Amino acid sequence: MTDDGERGTPGKGLVQGLAVTLKTMTRRSTTRQYPDVEPDLPPRSRGVIALLEENCTVCMLCARECPDWCIYIDSHKEEVLVPGAARARQRNVLDRFDIDFALCMYCGICIEVCPFDALHWTPEFEYAETDVLDLLHIAVEAGLTPLRALGEVGRRRGGVLAGELRATATMAALGVPRGQALDRLIRRCPSDGVTALVAAIRRTERHGAPLGPALSGLAADARTQRAQRLRERAARAAPKIQLVVALLLVPATMLLVAAALTAALL
Ligand code: SF4
Ligand code: SF4
Fold first, then answer.
1. Which of 1, 120, 194, 226 has the smallest set of CB atoms within 10 Å of its CB?
2. 8 A C-beta contact, residue 181 and residue 165
3. Cβ distance 227 to 36 under 8 Å?
4. Residues 171, 154 contacting (CB under 8 angstroms)
């Protein structure tokens, strides 16, 4: 029935609906497999504000002009000997440049006012890290010792593995030899990832090998393996979905069509 009380063509609405469904089903999918596939962002996208450290003279203009006061800069002075000069000159050396992105409103004023083009927008937009290895990498690169990094990541992240990392750091802090604490971690979390992590920490302690690149490599490997597992699961799920469609959805749709046509004709 139409709004003015006339009978429309029986089943017309249903056929129109199915036509829309069919058109959508046959259209090329534009779904991006993020985070496995990175999106192609335009080069001028506004993501993280990055610092070109060698250009920064610690003039503090950006921190002074920031309307949110969310730029934190620490520096110290160094003497530079200039050949032929009567006295050594002093220059500022940057120790810390942080932006609190929880406060930043992306106005871009800091970038505009920097007289040395030290600040610029990057298309990088992923601020959050959830993977344990990535978090450990960040903590180590920030200057924490390996065991302190285990403790901090374990304290901030939930889950069984995080609890074990926290316990390992606590045991080491209470005086248990590091080797024993790490052995216990492997026993309690017998996975390839944890074994590789402990091996990397031991290499750092014995030979002084930098831990940051090793953690970065481990995190990349873990991501590749995770993506591979997901692809395999998706490939296994496809035939099951087709079976469900063939056995349930197609008969159900046919029943609906038949019911609608019968109701319209009666
Ligand atoms: S973009 Fe604006 S709010 Fe953010 S740090 Fe720069 S000046 Fe401050
Ligand atoms: S305005 Fe530029 S040069 Fe000055 S402190 Fe900020 S980033 Fe460094």
1. 1
2. no
3. yes
4. no
Look at 8 and 96; give whichever has higher pLDDT: 96
Supply 140's token pair: 């180590």
Using CB atoms within 10 Å of the CB of residue 147, give its burial: 0 to 12 exposed, 13 to 18 middle, 19+ buried.
buried
Best of 71, 100, 111, 127 to mutate for ligand 1, by most ligand atoms within 8 A of CB? Answer: 71
For residue range 174-213, list pLDDT tens digits in order. 999 988 999 999 999 888 888 888 998 998 888 887 888 8
| Predicted model pTM | 0.53
Domains belonging to the chain, first-starting first, are: 46-126 (3.30.70.3270)
With a 6 Å cutoff on the Cβ, whether 101 touches ligand 2 is: no
Ligand 2 pocket, residue 61 CB under 6 Å:
yes
